[in-house]
Amino acid sequence: MAIKRIGSQTVKMANPPSIISTATIVGPKEGEGPLKDYFDLILEDDLWQQESWEKSESKMQEEVLKMALTKANLSEGNMDYLFSGDLLNQIVVSSYSARQLSIPYFGLYGACSTMSESLSLGAMIIDGGFADKVACCTSSHFSTAERQYRYPLEYGNQRTFSAQWTVTGAGASILSSEGNGPYITYVTTGRVIDPGIVDVNNMGAAMAPAAIDTISKHFIDTGYNPDDYDLIITGDLGAIGKSIVIDLMGKEGYDLSKVYDDCGVRIFDNEAQDTHAGGSGCGCSAVVFNGFVYNQLLNGSFKRVLLISTGALHSPITMQQGESIPGIAHAVTITNVKE
Amino acid sequence: MAIKRIGSQTVKMANPPSIISTATIVGPKEGEGPLKDYFDLILEDDLWQQESWEKSESKMQEEVLKMALTKANLSEGNMDYLFSGDLLNQIVVSSYSARQLSIPYFGLYGACSTMSESLSLGAMIIDGGFADKVACCTSSHFSTAERQYRYPLEYGNQRTFSAQWTVTGAGASILSSEGNGPYITYVTTGRVIDPGIVDVNNMGAAMAPAAIDTISKHFIDTGYNPDDYDLIITGDLGAIGKSIVIDLMGKEGYDLSKVYDDCGVRIFDNEAQDTHAGGSGCGCSAVVFNGFVYNQLLNGSFKRVLLISTGALHSPITMQQGESIPGIAHAVTITNVKE
Fold this sequence. Notes:
- 2 copies of one chain form a homodimer.
- Chain A is built from 10 helices and 14 strands.
- By secondary structure, chain A is an alpha/beta fold.
- A 6-stranded mixed β-sheet of chain A has the order 1-9-14-13-10-11, sandwiched between helices. A 6-stranded mixed β-sheet of chain A has the order 3-2-8-6-4-5, sandwiched between helices. A two-stranded parallel sheet of chain A has the order 7-12.
- In chain A, helix 2 links the parallel strand 4 (81-85) and strand 5.
- In chain A, helix 1 (53-71) packs across helix 2 and helix 5 packs parallel to helix 6.
- Chains A and B meet through helix 2, strand 5, helix 3 and helix 10 of A and helix 2, strand 5, helix 3 and helix 10 of B.
């Protein structure tokens, strides 16, 4: 086994890369939610003067990357690689925004697990000595996702209570081999786990077993326990998925109740904003991590965070063909000090 | 700059990973083509006793990975990571086959550049010390791609002469930190290049500028010339894209005519098999590389190969919205001896 590998699914960085800057852009609804003070730009209109929502989402990725670069006093030419992905067919949002940026580009598809997938690969590529500076980015958009995965918005379908609300948001992280943190110290990569759920309006339950699998493996591989973290936060399990994680992790002997939360639960006020089970989408963990969580790491409120972005790997076609919804979850540890 | 980085887009492996085994599965039409002797399994029927072509393609990825593992005397449990992707919406072929394999999984989307994208990341992750064994896999299927990107097969639309034929095929490579080669020695990662082409029946021309950009950067970054290679082979530019590459690379001062070919040109007998401009799809470079090229590297006929899988990053939605087709190309050098 290679020396950086410390378990069946986890690797430890030898010289942990720094997240030297982040940026976030969100839509109007997210900008009215409880985390509004942590976003860099709140759009007044989710079309953002573009001809289509797809073009608006692409502009969001392009601009959020430029904002993160500006904050770090860097330009596109300083970036060795861009890792990005999104929810749309053929990840066109990411590819068309990458077209505007002259950075060597690895396109990813991990559904809503993309933020931690990109941070995982970006950190390993830097720690492996292949890059000094890497950009990691993802996004989702309520209006592009809704019409691709569900119904035309004009149809006005009624939402079930287990349904989640796709976040309109884009988040970017700039990673560097040098810097003063926060640092990416561990990466635990998920396997595809399928609990057999076929209800596309209950994604939290479909993804929760993948999150549980990855979090458990992370504890086993690293020897850490929930108490070693200030925050353990999943990507977009929402209220239903969150309660499954607390319940089933408890049965495995891990009490997560004091430190665990979910980006999909945090981003909206589900009562006041009528978002039912909470937020979802690649953009959900992207803006909560790059906004609120990064801020709390910088100011020292959080010293050790486990981010587990969670993805549902189905498509409308596989649902029509009677398949169930497989899930995946990728975890990264982010700390104030090098470990 | 990190020491392994030798130019703006290229990295050199410190201890080049070995490709210790490969496997290929193709459809009936590919099995009648000029490279038929190099494939491990030729299907008699592209539905392969499944309920849908999508399920058949997923089975192809699952089985081709198992075949490659068997050849290397390894099992799923020996694999540290799986890097895979495909052309279908939400890369469901890759995710549903990964569900059957208990391997930590990074989903990729690079359209038809996926084979060299997965080899690039797999090689870097091993050389970076994060893994001993990595599986890289991709596929495409004429019948799943045709109905997703173009028309229902039942419609029987007439094909233009610049159109290419999506290869039904899956290919897998097993990479290892130890082994006797062939070795992955250099990785040149592409940028998104958009020549402004809007004709989805002329993908070769849309992708050729990306291939030219990556090949040129590879020569500049490494100091090598066309004569240093026994074969320089692009993924699926077809006859039109191939002629553009030879022409424009010549104008940049590189005579590729003696060593250059294209997987899309090689896989079919375009005259006898009526495939017009040639083959395409993620599976095209996957089966030509993991079949024919790997065989020639093993027997010493090729000592140094540059594989440049090429992808078109559009979607049917972006075409409907009046966008052009951006391309990308990722290059990997594979050699008989460690460099």
